[in-house]
Amino acid sequence: MKIIKIHPSDNVAVALENIAEGELVTVEGFSVTATQNIARGHKIALKKIAEGTPVVKYGNEIAIATRDIEVGEWVHTHNVRTGLTEGGEYFYDHKVYDLPEVAPKTFMGYLRKDSRAAIRNELWIIPIVGCVNGIAKQLVEENQDLVKGSIDGLYYYGHPFGCSQLGGDLMQTRKLLTSLVRHPNAGGVLCLALGCENLTMDLFKEGLGEYDKDRVKFLVCQQVEDEIEEGSKLLAELAEYAGQFQRRELPASELVVGMKCGGSDGLSGITANPTVGRFSDRLIALGGSTVLTEVPEMFGAENILFSRCQNQEVFEQAVDMVNDFKKYFVDHGQVVYENPSPGNKAGGITTLEDKSCGCVQKGGSAQIVDVLRYADPVTKKGLNILSGPGNDLVSATDLTAAGAHMILFTTGRGTPFGAPAPTVKISTNTALFEKKNGWIDFNAGSVAEGESLDDAGDRLLDYVLRVASGEQTKAEKHGCREISIFKDGVVL
Question: Can the peptide bond before residue 340 be classed as cis, meaning omega within 30 degrees of 0?
Fold first, then answer.
């Protein structure tokens, strides 16, 4: 099979392999001759599409034809446009789908004193201000001897903020950083300040709230003579505390898994994203939680998600989240549909609607139980949606701050990055998996080659449980760990 028609009402099909001009391809008993070369992941017209009428994929309108498109033509940015505007009507048409039956599963994780589960037992250094990033790096380099026994690693998460910020931006930096301090994968945390920044240690502690004094330590570098000596002493204390935790068998219901995509291509919504959706349904059926973010990549496909909000209140929160993000675009003089990226387009994504309809496949079919603001913690079991942008590192950091133990990241182009939470790269096509094996952890391209989505979802669930039990992702092996903080205001 060289092409796939995703929904019975679609007037385009997607190429699963490169198609040559003049080649006859067949789908569901219907044959069409390609009038030009069509690359894998790109669309071919199955019917004549008149100028001004919709292009339909996933059973949804993903574009408007800018001229007549003949049967067999390549359908892409040269002959269609987006149908999105800054407005949009949202309606609550509640739908409920059955979740799969899944036998109970467990993983080998850590149980914290507050009864939360963890999949890593690491020491983290959180700079409160960017001025001390270098000190944090030096502390990590000089204290690697602490990584032994049950301690999985020692890391710092540098960033440029914490000073020269005002109002909402300063509070957002505080919220993100304090959320990271609370992350269960950190068995011990050293909060590192300079001493003259806007985000003072007192202000930071106020945002952090109650904390375990054995698990969280603080150091203001300007207040001590030798910050490396003092920081090393505190890290040793944290290591002694964290080293008490050992892996034990825990139910899969304790897992929180974030879901996002980046470098999408025309196969993302056919292979990798729906595979993640099948995984999400399975984990939720086991009593676990998943988190979906990237609000701008829901534009054009919102109602697919909104129909699964578990009640009117959650629906209204979801609508507010989308409208707030649209306002953010408009306030900055940008159109809401300025997406997809050049890499997305090269891979076959044509419009934001096209990308969004594929993006939301990661949400599976479960009910949406909660809508979270930026860096809000997950508190409800089930499928959560989290406010955040599409940017890979910003949204992955957001998912980590929300408490995701790990992040599933689907990609058709490939990327090496990793968040503080283990970041699993899932390829949309086998060629990428084979080419960038040093980046990609899991191949969903097999779905385009005949594997069922249910089988791929089962396979991904098994892999997630192995990662939760300690198997390292490629990003972890290569030391790819970064954060990025969402900002909107001035820099002094």
Answer: yes
